[in-house]
Amino acid sequence: TQLLEQSPQFLSIQEGENLTVYCNSSSVFSSLQWYRQEPGEGPVLLVTVVTGGEVKKLKRLTFQFGDARKDSSLHITAAQPGDTGLYLCAGARSGYSTLTFGKGTMLLVSP
Amino acid sequence: DTEVTQTPKHLVMGMTNKKSLKCEQHMGHRAMYWYKQKAKKPPELMFVYSYEKLSINESVPSRFSPECPNSSLLNLHLHALQPEDSALYLCASSHWGGNPRGTQYFGPGTRLLVL
């Protein structure tokens, strides 16, 4: 059983469309990170959320942490080809020194 | 500065070779990590160092040997690898404990091909 369920696993959309990626769990996380990764490169940190109900915005990207700190979402408005990449959510749990990763969402934005 | 650097960027090695991957950070982080990543999959944790001591080994084969010479450097020594070890090897660092807890910063990775 995957501790952090990420969906969808693959998303192919046209430029200008909106999309949402979800990460869900039955466990509580003390923080949750979102990363974007391009092929052959390392994951780049987009945001860390730590407070239940928290909403953070990064230009056209909106990140939300669930009230119970068990789930998170990433919403992209008016997607652009430069948004193409693998999006990873990763959570940290109290008492654990490592991150739990979702399986990732491969996003392809076509012009 | 949130930069983690890794060298080399690419590495091709035979199954009898010995090589090393290097990682460096200057963020004052006392936790450093090695991950292995296959294409379109999430990173898989291999090793964790905290305060220059190995704290987690995720049952990694002994042909991978980590080393942490000081608080800024992390090495991964490779010997007698198999073709299935070909992957992107990522280094990451974070505060130990962390505030916010868990935020790890990744390097650009080393693309390893074992022939």
Describe the structure.
The complex is a heterodimer of chains A (111) and B (115). Chain A is mainly β and 111 residues long. Helices cover 0% and strands 53% of the residues of chain A. Chain A has a single domain (5-110), classed as Immunoglobulins (Immunoglobulin-like, Sandwich), CATH 2.60.40. Chain A has strands at 5-7, 10-14, 19-24, 31-37, 44-49, 55-58, 61-65, 71-76, 85-92, 99-101, 105-110. In chain A, strands 2, 4, 5, 9, 10 and 11 form a 6-stranded mixed beta sheet that branches. In chain A, strands 1-3-8-7-6 form a 5-stranded antiparallel beta sheet, with no helix packed on it. In chain A, 36% of the residues are buried. The termini of chain B are far apart. Chain B contains no helices and 11 strands. The radius of gyration of chain B is 13 Å and the shape is globular. With 115 residues, chain B is mostly beta strands. Classes of the chains: A mainly beta (111), B mainly beta (115).
Determine Rg of chain B (CA atoms, Å).
13 Å
Helix/strand order of chain A, N-terminal first: EEEEEEEEEEE
Low-confidence runs of chain B: none
Termini separation of chain A comes to: 37 Å
- Percent of residues of chain A in beta strands? over 45%
Tertiary shape of chain A: globular
Question: Of all protein chain pairs, which has the greatest interface, and how many residues does each chain bring to it?
Answer: A-B, 27 and 30 residues
Tally of structural domains of chain A: 1
Oligomeric state of the chains in view: heterodimer
**Principal-axes shape call of chain B:** globular
Characterize the biggest β-sheet of chain A. 6 strands, mixed
Would you tell me the overall average pLDDT of chain B? 93
Structural class of chain B: mainly beta
* Most strands sheet of chain B: 7 strands, mixed
CATH architecture of chain A: Sandwich
